[in-house]
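Propose amino acids for all 388 sites.
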């Protein structure tokens, strides 16, 4: 959506395909990072954007057993907004769609599921989509695949995926939020279990972390045991765990960390999760995807106005964005291996035991993860391309 809006803003005729009838998908990431808010500011949209329902978080805290620690501090970032905005993703998408429709070059096709690529002489020249009215072929000088970690288009292009592994999966569920609930805690680690909470205003979106591939074992123990586990990790939710009426209320996110060896084929570019699926650690996948979109528009819009883009042009986008994705994935893999994997395996992670004392000695430390999460590596800025 961001890439399409920026392309249309620059005058590039752009068609965006969305396979659903609306954007009301639940259990998507909700984090809008300070670097993304800077992009909204550069577009002149920040004030109206922040009028949408959201929560602003200046620090992220974790509860290690019964010890509360601040793990990320965004208040010192060199950004316009020194907070992470938690906004339901459908709000974000609807906002961008409304803004994009202001540009004559933008077209949004809902209920249009991209199913295949159109090829001519070894080059991608568009997509074939399925709509309620039937098959829709759209020809394009550039096809941008932003269709996620299970990307159909990258599979159709035969692009090689490098799997990096993950020791965990995540179960998403929602529980009612009360006015007197603690607000300063984001993550809980207790008794070999991990759970994160996202404030959705009237309810908590809960991420219950489990060892990779163990959902069937958890279900075999029964729903009542699962409810008990939730109360054991987050005591103030114990009386609300009965709101989980069946396993249908629990959604599995199969965590995958991978990346493409090459993000492109002639006439095709993959961005976001389609090119580098991130771990949910830090909620940085959305931020990286948006930075990819900004770089794509910055580097390719003028070239598309002048004619086709070459393979070298597409390779240049990958070269600019790949290092940020690789470094972020390396950090995520380290955290998965040294902290999350150990907690899930035996309930112990030596670093976590030392963390409270370390933070007392070096109180500035939360600024480091604050910068890594809030800004990331190589944040992008919107070029002042003429609006057409």
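Proposal:
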């Amino acid at each position: 959506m961001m890439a399409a809006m920026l392309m249309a803003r620059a005058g590039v005729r752009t068609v965006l395909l969305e396979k659903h009838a609306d954007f009301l998908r639940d259990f998507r990431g909700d984090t809008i990072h300070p670097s993304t808010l800077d992009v909204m500011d550069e577009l002149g949209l920040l004030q109206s954007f922040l009028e949408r329902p959201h929560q602003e978080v200046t620090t992220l805290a974790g509860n290690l057993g019964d010890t509360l620690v601040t793990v990320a501090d965004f208040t010192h970032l060199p950004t316009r907004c020194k907070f992470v905005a938690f906004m339901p993703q459908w709000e974000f998408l609807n906002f961008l769609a409304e803004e994009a429709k202001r540009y004559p070059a933008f077209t949004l096709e809902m209920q249009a599921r991209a199913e295949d690529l159109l090829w001519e002489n070894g080059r991608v020249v568009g997509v074939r989509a399925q709509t309620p009215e039937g098959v829709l072929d759209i020809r394009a000088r550039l096809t941008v695949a932003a269709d996620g970690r299970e990307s159909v288009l990258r599979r159709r292009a035969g692009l090689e995926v490098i799997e990096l592994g993950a020791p965990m999966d995540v179960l998403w569920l929602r529980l009612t939020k009360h006015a007197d609930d603690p607000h300063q805690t984001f993550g809980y680690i207790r008794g070999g279990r991990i759970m994160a909470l996202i404030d959705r205003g009237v309810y908590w979106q809960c991420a219950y972390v489990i060892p990779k591939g163990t959902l069937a074992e958890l279900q075999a123990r029964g729903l009542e045991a699962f409810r008990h586990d939730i109360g054991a990790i987050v005591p103030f939710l114990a009386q609300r765990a009965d709101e989980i009426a069946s396993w249908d209320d629990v959604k599995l996110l199969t965590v995958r960390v991978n990346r493409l060896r090459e993000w492109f084929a002639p006439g095709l570019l993959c961005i976001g999760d389609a090119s580098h699926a991130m771990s949910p650690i830090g909620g940085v996948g959305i931020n990286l995807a948006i930075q990819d979109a900004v770089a794509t528009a910055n580097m390719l819009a003028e070239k598309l106005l002048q004619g086709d883009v070459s393979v070298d042009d597409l390779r240049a986008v990958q070269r600019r964005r790949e290092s940020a994705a690789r470094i972020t994935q390396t950090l995520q893999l380290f955290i998965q291996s040294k902290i999350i994997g150990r907690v899930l395996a035996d309930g112990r992670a030596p670093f976590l035991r030392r963390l409270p004392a370390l933070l007392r000695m070096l109180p500035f430390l939360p600024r480091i993860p604050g910068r890594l999460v809030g800004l990331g590596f190589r944040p992008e800025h919107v070029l002042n391309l003429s609006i057409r």
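Residues 40 and 46 are 5 Å apart (CA to CA). The mean pLDDT is 92.
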